[in-house]
Specification:
The chain is mostly helical. It contains 4 helices and no strands.
Amino acid sequence: MMNNFWLRHVGKIAICSGMIGASVYWLMINVTLAQIQAISGQVPFDMRPLGYSPAEAAALLDGLTADGRAYYLTHQIPLDTIYPAMLALTLVAMIRWFGQRMNDSTLVRLGTAASVGAAVFDYAENLGVAAMILTWPEPADFLVNAASIATIAKSILTTVAVTLVLVTASKWAFGYLKQVFCGVRGKAT
């Protein structure tokens, strides 16, 4: 029953979660992350796809001051609690939307796994950032390294998931155009 609901509404789910996710992302980029960068003079953790060292984390946290660290916890982290779920839901819905018309479901399964994995690592990053802020001025190096690894994993998996959505959409479009112009019947390849 739930699977039937999902298949009938996957397009609407993709659009709605995408709009929510894009709105939250816009707020983070233009308000909270911009404010964090303005206060600290450093690029926020969330915007460092290649991770960060303990020294770089210390420079950011020190530059934030107590008020900036409180702002990170009370403004950025709550928004970044909504965003990973919305991004994952959007990507999964999009890849399933295009993938339901294809014979091969390998891309759909891989895209779904990458999307969910990206969200999991984004939440791990958020927990790591919150723990670093709460333990400042003495966050353990292992904590910084773990948060940095989560940031890198999130970035890689997000890139993979978006790429797989684009590949799946391209395969669907090619199959659709082939049906339209060549008169081939059946599912897109």
